[in-house]
Amino acid sequence: MDTQNLEKAAIKIQSWWRGNMVRWTLLHAALRAWVIQCWWRSMQAKMLEQRRRLALRLYTCQEWAVVKVQAQVRTWQARRRFLQAHQAACIIQSHWRWHASQTRGLIQGRYEVRASRLELDIEILMT
């Protein structure tokens, strides 16, 4: 073989080697990019899950706050209705007692203070 053929053979071997090295480098670069992309997607999924949990926690806190406020309002309303009914019952009782005392009999009595005690004598006359 002459030197020219050897040179051509050497050039072919070198170009084949360089091609393999370029393909290997590109393959490894693509694999590294794929690993980075997988990692980034998993990080995005984790961040999305964290944001979702935070939003759910905030929503739950707001809902509990609303429930507590509603319970307080209902308690206040029930207490107000109870106090109104209680006051009405007291008024009815006082009117009924006054009416009963006017229609059932007369209350007469006397009292006198002696020394350090109060002596009370009440007579109820039914008419």
From TrEMBL:
It comes from the Eukaryota. PROSITE patterns: IQ. This is IQ domain-containing protein F6 isoform X2. It comes from Balaenoptera acutorostrata.
